[in-house]
């Protein structure tokens, strides 16, 4: 199938970026980076061509005829369809063939992949390699090391698969506590590693946190192929004109690894008001916990855009009590941009985004007592001091985590690969 006639050929002097991600709508953090990345390069005249999966929530695109067929988990399908789906998860021949046709139609100067696991699959990478197109991938998670991508099992950090012992993903049923799904992911990992679909094709891996860079090196990735480029927010678009309220706020998915149960217990112990913005699998349990501990917690449900920014902007601070290897949460940068300090768990990439005592505080991950002390500490300070901490965070974002800094770092990377 040919691309629609609305597609125009890029001018001879126009650079073309092939931007790749499973979903073509704002679904989560990876999609936010994907779309913002596209906008940054279109602003400076690049022709950005997306490659994604078909989905009813997708934004319109003149390139959608090249998107791969939808795979959406959790739907009721027959055994035969499950087998076909499992095969696509491991290696998508459709994605391989469509990316080849897309390259023929609109050859890019560089390709940048974000999340492609289980939908597009790395079957597209050898095609890009054979075509001589520089390939960059952003590590939004730890899938390049851990088969189940979280390095988490039974609510605890797990690195049992390190050193090639990937059979542990099936033994411990790491994927949704399902032997079937975990076995599929084991098979996927074996095939991908045997064929070198990542190691033999990706030129550079962008890691948003220094922690992820060091962790991938520990798991065997060559240091010279890992480039630290932090995430960004456009702080100039965020207001700091807020009247501070009397509560702390958590915003995100209500999932076990986010440490929200620890936060509720800590809020009760510190006698601090807490507003939780988000939904997820743990919502009912967390509401019950708040009631049983006597914590002053308001569940605000899912919020986004200005409503979420107002909630954070009027808070005493944002709290990220994570209990897994977070990468580089954009929510921290947004809190700073709004002029608010942050209390973050000392785990993963979070500590490198908090200047202790200057832009916020850190607490031991999973410790109710330590987090309660940090909540009480920040709450006891004058409002002017919290505002000063938030302002310092905002200035840090304007210097180190700005859209201009991100784009220039990415341009430098693209240029270094294109000039080889």
What does this 3D model show about the protein?
- The protein is of the alpha/beta class and 420 residues long.
- It folds into two domains: 16-144 and 198-232 and 403-418, 3-Layer(aba) Sandwich (Rossmann fold), CATH 3.40.50; 235-400, Glycogen Phosphorylase B (Rossmann fold), CATH 3.40.50.2000.
- Helices cover 39% and strands 13% of the residues.
- It contains 14 helices and 14 strands.
- The chain has helices at residues 29-43, 79-90, 93-105, 125-130, 168-171, 179-195, 210-218, 260-270, 283-293, 305-313, 330-337, 368-380, 383-400, 403-418, and strands at 16-20, 47-51, 110-113, 135-138, 152-153, 156-157, 204-207, 226-228, 247-251, 273-277, 297-301, 317-320, 342-345, 360-363.
- The strands form three sheets. A six-stranded parallel sheet has the order 2-1-3-4-7-8, sandwiched between helices.
- Helix 8 (260-270) runs parallel beside helix 9 (283-293) and helix 11 (330-337) packs across helix 13.
- It is globular, with a radius of gyration of 22 Å.
- The two termini are 34 Å apart.
- Residues 1-9 have low confidence and may be disordered.
């Amino acid at each position: 199938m040919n691309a629609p006639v609305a597609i125009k050929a890029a001018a001879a002097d126009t650079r073309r970026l092939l931007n790749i991600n499973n979903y073509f709508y704002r679904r989560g953090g990876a999609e936010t980076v994907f779309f913002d990345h596209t906008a940054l390069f279109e602003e400076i005249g690049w022709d950005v061509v997306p490659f994604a999966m078909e989905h009813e929530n997708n934004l319109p695109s003149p390139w959608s005829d090249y998107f791969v067929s939808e795979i959406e988990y959790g739907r009721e399908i027959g055994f035969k369809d499950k087998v076909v789906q499992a095969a696509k998860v491991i290696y998508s021949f459709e994605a391989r063939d469509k990316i080849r046709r897309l390259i023929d139609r609109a050859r890019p100067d560089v390709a940048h992949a974000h999340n492609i696991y289980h939908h597009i699959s790395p079957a597209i990478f050898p095609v890009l390699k054979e075509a001589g197109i520089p390939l960059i991938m952003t590590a939004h998670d730890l899938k390049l090391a851990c088969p189940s991508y979280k390095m988490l099992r039974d609510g605890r950090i797990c690195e049992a698969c390190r050193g090639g012992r990937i059979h542990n993903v099936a033994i411990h049923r790491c994927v949704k506590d399902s032997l079937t799904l975990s076995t599929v992911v084991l098979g996927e990992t074996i095939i991908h590693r045997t064929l070198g679909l990542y190691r033999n094709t990706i030129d550079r891996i962008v890691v948003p946190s220094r922690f992820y860079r060091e962790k991938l090196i520990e798991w065997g990735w060559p240091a010279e192929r890992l480039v630290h480029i932090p995430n960004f927010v456009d702080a100039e678009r965020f207001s700091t004109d807020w009247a501070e309220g009397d509560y702390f706020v958590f915003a995100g998915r209500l999932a076990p690894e986010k440490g929200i149960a620890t936060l509720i217990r800590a809020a009760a112990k510190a006698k601090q008001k807490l507003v939780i913005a988000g939904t997820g699998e743990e919502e009912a349990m967390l509401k019950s916990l708040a009631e049983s501990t006597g914590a002053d917690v308001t569940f605000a449900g899912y919020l986004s855009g200005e409503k979420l920014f107002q909630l954070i902007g009027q808070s005493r601070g944002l709290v990220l009590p994570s209990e897994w290897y977070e990468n580089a949460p954009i929510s921290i940068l947004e809190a700073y941009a709004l002029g608010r300090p942050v209390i973050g768990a000392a785990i993963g990439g979070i500590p490198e985004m908090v200047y202790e005592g200057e832009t916020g505080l850190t607490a031991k991950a999973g410790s109710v007592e330590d987090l309660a002390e940090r909540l009480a500490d920040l709450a006891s300070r004058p409002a002017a001091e919290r505002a000063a901490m938030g302002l310092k965070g905002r200035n840090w974002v304007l210097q180190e985590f700005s859209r201009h800094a991100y784009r220039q770092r990415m341009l430098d990377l693209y240029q270094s690969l294109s000039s080889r």
